[in-house]
Amino acid sequence: MKFLYDDESFSFEALRAAGYAAYGGADLGEVLVTCRKIPEGDEEAWSAQWGATAARVERIGRDALAAGHRVSAREALLRASNYYRTADFYRREDPAADTESERLAMASQQTFADAAALLDTPARAVRIPYEDTTLPGYLFFADDSGTPRPTLIYHGGYDSTLEENYLALAAGALRRGYNVLTFDGPGQGSTVRDLGLHFRPDWEAVVTPAVDFALTVPELDAEKLVLVGTSLGGYLAARAAAFEHRIAACVLHDGVDDFHEVVKALAARAAATPGGIEEMMAQDTQVRWVVRNGRWTLGVSDLDELVKASEAYTMAGIADRIACPTLVLDAENDQFFKGQPERLIGELTCQKELILFREDEGGGEHCHEGAISLFHQRTFDWLDTLLAH
Questions:
Q1: Would you identify the family this protein belongs to, as annotated (predicted)?
Q2: How far apart are CA 324 and CA 248, in angstroms?
Q3: Do 233 and 253 contact (CB within 8 A), yes or no?
Q4: Residue 9 a catalytic site member
Q5: Which residues are 331's β-sheet partners?
Q6: Which of 11, 47, 81, 231 is flagged as catalytic?
Q7: Domains plus CATH for the chain?
Q8: Does 146 score more than 90 pLDDT?
Q9: CB within 8 Å of 284: residues ≥ 6 apart
Q10: What is the DSSP string of 106-146?
């Protein structure tokens, strides 16, 4: 699906940013006027223009808040957070030394925190105990009644941020009466930037502390905890569900059977390309981003180390340990994990269902970007039915 750009990565990321309009995370006009100033493949212009739009919209939110317009402030700050995240997306050459990347990331976090405090039921910022530190998270409540409710424990994937998780899933869950505990795990958002934590394949070591934490919150129904993971999180959540059996259901958005297979295929393409991976990165925005983001989030220095580090990210010999009902989502035109959801569903022995999102219905992109309402309708209808029984 081409959206505004011929460059596949720019098209996808613009669609991702625009798709959050469903929950107030974007305005289509703001997306259009921003993108028309950004040439194909120009990452510096991408960062500058999205950053400028974010700053302008943040000012709207700050002025509205100062004037006592709570809803207007919340809406503008939520959009600004999404735009700041988008501005930072391609700044992955050396994020630790990139002061502009740090500024954009912090601005996304702060504008979201200020918007979350203005929700009808304000979100609660939390720290989840994890090894010798804590992971940042948010608790979102469907209302302030204190009634224990079915609860999603939600994390993203290879490039997700805690703040984006609200738009990606939590907002839709709240409308349907679910509470949500979401967090940045190692390798994600502020944990890699501020704590130096990198992805780990044994993700149950991350989810089990989140479940432990959830069980201390009276508003979260201990019998109806649902684990959801997005993108690479489709592997991470599956891996965790194989070992953490206190969850009532698992949703893989989308299913990932073997992350190593994807990285290994990229390395094989590089080996067959004159000039190798450096030439591929110079010519292809998506390849450049995948390698740079992998170096940062997995804590490696080059593609060879990325291939090696990814070896353990597979569900082979593990998938049949998942005991809870599991929903596996698939996208017809997935550019990262095509074919893997079908393979994973075949390895599961638990109660299971596969839902394919087709291109001709607008849901064929990776993680159904641009079709968030359809994604939420199918996912939550499945969960509502399951948990009712």
A1: Belongs to the AB hydrolase superfamily. FUS2 hydrolase family.
A2: 6
A3: yes
A4: no
A5: 357
A6: 231
A7: 1-118 (1.20.1440.110), 121-258+313-389 (3.40.50.1820), 263-306 (no CATH)
A8: yes
A9: none
A10: HHHHHHHHHHHTTSSS--EEEEEEETTEEEEEEEE-S-SS-
Task: Name which of 89, 32, 25, 15 is nearest 57 in CA terms.
Answer: 25
Say what the pTM is.
0.97
- For residue 314, the one-letter residue type is T
Tracing tokens 């394949």 back to the chain, one arrives at 201
Question: How far is the C-alpha of 151 from the C-alpha of 374, rounded, in Å?
Answer: 20
pLDDT in tens, 76-106: 999 999 999 999 999 999 999 999 999 999 9
To which H or E segment does residue 252 belong? strand 249-253
In whole angstroms, what is the distance from residue 65 CA to residue 147 CA? 30
Exposure of 131 by Cβ count < 10 A (0-12 exposed, 13-18 middle, 19+ buried)? exposed
Distance CA 13, CA 19 (A): 10
